[in-house]
Amino acid sequence: MNSEAFPEISRRKNGDSLTGIAGPLASDLYTAGTPPVHGLAKKPPLSPLIAKVKIGDMLQVERRGDRWAVYNVHELLGNQRWLPGDDGKLNVITGTPIRFPLRGELHVQRILVDPQGTVRDIAGYVEPS
Question: Is residue 122 a contact partner of residue 80, using CB atoms and an 8 Å limit?
Fold first, then answer.
């Protein structure tokens, strides 16, 4: 899907814009068993292939050690910001346990784009598989 077809959700001071689908709330996603992704970890750095990701893409997620790797069919794109210590903790708002799957599909709903139009980060939710 073309990012121009989606509204800008917010703009950062550095000129980056967040574009895509705004909802649902993180608490609703945790309750549904589809944990939210608010962006990928900055270390190690994201693959340059992140620039090719579009809203509507579905990427693979797999737990590898204490990280959840995000990859397309061909290459590792980056790692989730999820922390192993948060798995099983109670969600502050709903009181339900937060569960991170061993594997799943990341449904890309938002992209962070720099002023030149290059995708710098992604967000969405993970459906366990």
Answer: no
d(CA 52, CA 63): 23
The answer to whether 28 and 129 are in contact (CB under 8 A) is: no
CA atoms within 13 A on the CB side of 59: 29
Residue 75: which domain range?
3-128
Whole-number Cα distances in Å, 44 to 12, 47, 48, 67, 125: 23, 9, 12, 11, 21
Residues of the chain with pLDDT under 50: none
Residue 95 is part of a domain; what is its CATH number? 3.30.70
Q: How many domains does the chain have?
A: 1
Residue 26 tokens, joined: 């993180």
pLDDT in tens, 31-49: 999 999 999 999 889 999 9
pTM to 2 decimal places: 0.92
Residue of 14, 48, 40 whose CA lies nearest to 124 = 40
For residue 100 the two structure tokens come to 């991170």
